[in-house]
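Our preliminary data section would be incomplete without showing what the modeling component actually yields. Below, a chain of 458 amino acids is followed by its predicted structure, encoded as tokens that our downstream tools consume directly.
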Amino acid sequence: MNKKSSTLGIDSISSLLIKQAVPASIGILVMSLNMIVDTIFVGRWIGPLAISAITVVLPVTFFIAAIGLAVGIGGSSVLSRALGAGNDKKALQVFGNQVTLTLLASGLLASVGLIFQDTLIEFFGAAESFKELALTYYRIVMYGIVMLAMCMMGNNVIRAEGKPKFAMYAMMLPAIGNIAMDYLLINVLDYGMEGAAWATFISYAICFAFILWFFLFKSELRLKAESFKLKKKIVSEISGLSFVTLARQGVIAVLTILLNNVLINVGDAIDVASYGIISRVLMFALFPVIGVNQGFMPIAGYNFGADKFQRVREAINTSIIYSGILALGIFILIMIFAEPFVSIFISDKAGQDAGSLADSAELLKRTPNALRWVFAATPVIVIQLIGGSYFQAIGKVIPALLLSLTKQGFFLIPLILILPNYYGVFGVWISFPIADVLSTIVTGYYLNRAVKKDLISS
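Predicted structure:
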């Protein structure tokens, strides 16, 4: 095997973090355009209710795709530590089992999702005013969801190998394809929601094709037939750590269902569209912070597996500093430029009917201040991200699980159930910064205690 992954235990932490985080950040930036471009195009060329439709579809499709993300992150923690310990045989077995698990689990869930599509769409908050739009988008996107799950799994394995540039390409190519197909299918051919859905499907296919090419021709993990056979011990290791990510994504899906339903009950479809815009801005704006976090994980996992504890400690501190500076810059930009960010998603063209123009004007009026509240505690979230990722990278399932659920599960969901009863829609938006601060305090405490206990020798 080409042991390029060994550089994770040799090069300086700062240079490694930059090498890992910059491609990851660029990839996340461009990949997030897959969702953002859909939202911009349907909002400007179809109407605000189309944004509401995509918003209620997202948690269903994202949860199924998150199977791949979970198996990718969880399995790559095992894989990174195996590479760090020089156990190439185990690394191959882990990757082969990741492929099998992702295909089986995502395929099963996709089938169930298509069978019960009407029930799921209603459960996830689709109102009658945009239910048909949501179903149109949902059906087509679900056909390609297994490819997306495989892409999310494979991308994490590529990073675990120490090849972040290829992981970046795997996210950039489908995003570029999605932009081109969105323009062609929605604006030029006027296929509406079907066009947006097929553009997303095609982007999944492009990503899958690139991931397959990488592992056939560029990877140091050259799989054999026996690698795909599930091994109880390997599956147990992967599943334990994967459950952390899957539980987090599951809670996010539950949170989205709750938000959609609460916003419909205390507000209206325009408020659901507001959250749809905010969720896209969250994904887009935080790309450098998430990139640092993704770059941190293989470095921490590899060096922990190699018993280089001082390097792990340095990786934690450096990651928190770098991502903290980035998060502060993001916070300032959102506070100053909230209105321009929101206006990107909304059309004021005279060609729209009177109802759509009124909806667009109301959406532009409500969303900027809501966006500011959701981002109000952004500078402190880096401790949540790095803290949770540290425990996952070193294979500690229980603390990784509990900390990953702290913000959404333990704080945000209860706050959203309580505060809107007193403050209406505003109660939804202020729940976000309160949950961020509380979960940061909890994560910071446990991270500090764990570092002092676990990383005491080099």
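The radius of gyration is 21 Å. The chain has a mean pLDDT of 84. Preliminary results of this kind motivate Aim 1 of the renewal.
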